[in-house]
Specification:
Helices cover 41% and strands 20% of the residues. By secondary structure, the chain is of the alpha/beta class. β2 and β3 form a beta hairpin.
Length: 412
């Protein structure tokens, strides 16, 4: 049997790579979006690193890694994939990028030219982009025969209305491309598809607010299937307080700290991205699970949780005001999916929107937690960015086969 026929006879899979600031996730999907395998290296840069991987038909493996760095994580994932993919073929790879920069507002085929463009976009998100580019560069070489697709978190928000998109700065900066970019777009797209599957197309076309609450948190207003506004703005540090990110601050604080403490721009950036939010408010605890355990006896932990819920509630209300109402509120992300008390405390002050949740379904993290009398359907939908990336890859590779998209992949 020749190589081409042997290659074509193999099971064809989509590999998804999702790199974050502290983890590297991967998943393998069939062309029907069936998850074949998945895994992750977590705890990058900490002493509590861990590698997990599981195939659909097999036991999960889990092993500790002491103080893993990104290159170590990449090589561990590649080693596991090499062993798993003996009689299988990765024919397409989807790469998550937080930012597309000024030039790339849509998901697209990945070429060397586009990769170089993304390197120029690093200043827009220096926390995530360098690592995501490093991951992509390695797996381009590793899977040189596959079609590669760049999937951008900013793509979902590209067509924001001008009233939400334009920052109140001198207009010359908007003319240079400085605007609200918005993030968590891949998650928003997935959740909107899931809402259509669960409640029908009319619900997905209605006024929807997505509260994606996790280590990074954002709240997005969606109407007619399009983003209308979102809490994260020029950077993923803005919006509501997060695990270690401050959320919105008075911009004059940068000047104040420079004048009073001679704080450099680099130090200010480090403070608002890695030392603030829940971590800063509580005195060092960024994990919501720890804060909820401590808040009965720790006033700082209690205050951190209260501020997080207050800011989320306020943001949801403002998004509803901007759209002229809300018909569906979706809770998603690690904090919102797993903590009934957080959902309850956020919703407590939203009765004026006609929103009411039911205690028992909320405690059970049911799919629908709103009371039957509620005018707003409140849902808990676990997000699945990897599956959404695989869907994007299928769409993009389909366009290329029809000759409508981005030309031949030149990598490899």
């Amino acid at each position: 049997m020749n190589k081409k026929r042997d290659h074509d006879s193999q099971e064809r899979l989509i590999l998804v790579l999702n790199g974050g600031s502290t983890s590297l996730k991967f998943a393998l999907f069939s062309n029907t979006l069936d998850r074949v395998a998945h895994g992750s290296v977590s705890g990058l840069g900490t002493t509590a690193g861990n590698f997990k991987a599981a195939a659909k038909s097999g036991p999960e493996i889990s092993e500790s890694i002491n103080s893993p760095h990104l290159q170590q994580a990449i090589e561990r994932v590649a080693h596991w994939l090499a062993a798993f993919l003996k009689d299988k073929n990765v024919h397409a790879v989807g790469h998550r990028f937080v930012h597309g920069g000024l030039k790339h507002a849509r998901h697209c085929s990945l070429t060397r030219d586009i990769l170089n463009d993304l390197k120029k976009a690093v200043p827009f998100d220096p926390e995530h982009m360098p690592d995501q580019i490093k991951v992509a560069s390695f797996f381009y070489r590793h899977f040189s025969l596959a079609q590669h697709t760049a999937c951008f978190d900013t793509a979902f928000h590209h067509d924001l209305p001008i009233r939400a998109q334009m920052l109140p700065l001198p207009v010359r900066y908007f003319d240079r491309g400085i605007r609200k970019f918005g993030f968590h777009g891949i998650s928003c797209a997935y959740l909107l598809n899931e809402l259509a599957n669960l409640a029908g197309a009319d619900a997905a076309r209605g006024r929807v607010i997505v509260a994606h609450l996790g280590g990074g948190s954002s709240i997005t207003a969606i109407h007619n299937g399009r983003s209308q506004d979102t809490s994260m703005s020029f950077s993923s540090t803005s919006g509501i307080p997060m695990a270690t990110r401050s959320g919105d601050l008075d911009p004059m604080l940068a000047w104040y700290f420079f004048k009073t403490e001679r704080m450099s721009p680099a130090k200010f950036s480090e403070m608002v991205t890695k030392e603030s939010g829940l971590c800063g408010l509580s005195g060092g605890f960024s994990d919501m699970r720890q804060l909820l355990k401590r808040r009965a006896t720790d006033a700082r932990a209690r205050t951190a949780v209260e501020i997080f819920c207050y800011q989320a509630r306020k943001c949801i209300a403002s998004m509803a005001a901007g759209m002229g109402g809300v018909e569906t509120l979706i809770f998603s992300g690690g904090i919102a999916e797993n903590n009934a008390c957080i959902r309850e405390e956020i919703c407590e002050g939203l009765g004026f929107l006609g929103l009411r949740i039911s205690a028992r379904p909320n405690r059970q993290s049911a799919a629908v937690i709103s009371d039957p009398s509620s005018k707003v359907a409140v849902r808990v939908i676990p997000t699945d960015e990897e599956r959404e990336i695989a869907r994007i890859v299928l769409n993009e590779t389909g366009r290329r086969k029809q000759g409508k998209a981005y030309g031949k992949n030149t990598l490899g």
